[in-house]
Design a protein that fits this description.
The protein has one domain (3-219): Rossmann fold. It contains seven helices and ten strands. The chain has helices spanning 46-53, 76-86, 102-107, 114-127, 143-155, 173-190, 201-204, and strands at 3-14, 17-30, 35-40, 61-66, 69-70, 87-90, 161-165, 193-197, 209-214, 217-219. Helix 5 (143-155) packs parallel to helix 6 (173-190). The longest helix has 18 residues, at 173-190. It is globular. 37% of the residues are buried. It binds adenosine-5'-triphosphate. Adenosine-5'-triphosphate is lined by residues 12, 20, 22, 40, 42-48.
């Protein structure tokens, strides 16, 4: 799926202070299947942007087209359906449910079809290298393994776009590189579009395109 941002802006309101302008008229196009590294210094607005692209937040102004659809013209219910159908999200923290096993966590987004999806969930766990952990609880896994489980959960809906917001921020360098490599490989295999927030220049250089943000703007 391709993504077009047209003059996206985001302001946050602050008590007794002027609004803070976090995104300032952002324009770009991401082609279907492209792997994008989103980089920029802390506070540049990367998370704010990726939350809007992932339909978890609305811009103050501007448009976002996913495969030609003007997403924010829809109501919240529409955004929710669109997100569930097309988008996978991996965060810096894994947000796995501690009282559910790994396989149950992967099946949570598709719980009403969990019996039908079991094989697929196990295949994904095998692909991300943690099938042997399927009946264990997240607390028994290492940080890297937990993040692999979070990726598996993001993949269960066969998303056409994956957003990953510093998914390796809590991991050591080697484990982090493995996780980012896994995201790249998964995107190549499935042809899904990947937008990855990273501070790793080596990895960013392997992306099809680097979008660099500075102070709420894109540096071209
Ligand atoms: N809900 C909010 N209310 C007010 N200000 C916010 C809110 N969310 C983010 N900000 C501000 O917006 C700016 C951009 O934040 P954002 O998290 O998008 O940056 P970032 O590039 O992802 O940074 P980092 O690399 O440190 O995660 C920051 O100054 C932040 O304090």
């Amino acid at each position: 799926m391709n993504i077009i941002a047209e003059s996206l802006s985001k302001n946050y309101k602050r008590k007794n202070l002027p609004d803070i302008k976090v995104l300032k008229n952002i324009d770009f196009e991401i082609m279907s299947g492209q792997k994008i590294a989103l980089t920029g210094q802390s506070g540049a607005g990367k998370s704010t942007l990726i939350h809007i692209l992932g339909l978890m937040d609305r811009p103050t102004s501007g448009k976002l087209y996913i495969d030609g659809v003007d997403c924010f013209a829809g109501d919240d219910k529409y955004l929710c359906v669109m997100r569930k159908k097309n988008i996978g999200f991996v965060f810096q923290f894994h947000y796995l449910m501690p009282d559910f096993t790994v396989i149950e966590n992967i099946l949570l987004p598709v719980w009403n079809e969990k019996n039908i999806k079991l094989n697929q969930a196990q295949n994904i766990l095998e692909k991300v290298g943690i099938l042997h952990w399927q009946n264990h609880f997240p607390g028994e896994l290492s940080g890297g393994e937990q993040q692999r489980a979070a990726i598996a959960r993001a993949l269960i809906n066969n998303p056409q776009i994956i957003f990953a917001d510093e998914p390796t921020g809590n991991l050591d360098r080697i484990t982090g590189l493995e996780i980012e490599k896994l995201l790249f490989e998964s995107s190549s295999e499935t042809g899904s579009t990947l937008v990855l927030v990273t501070h790793n220049d080596e990895l960013a250089s392997k992306a099809d395109k680097i979008i660099k943000m500075t102070d709420g703007k894109i540096m071209l």
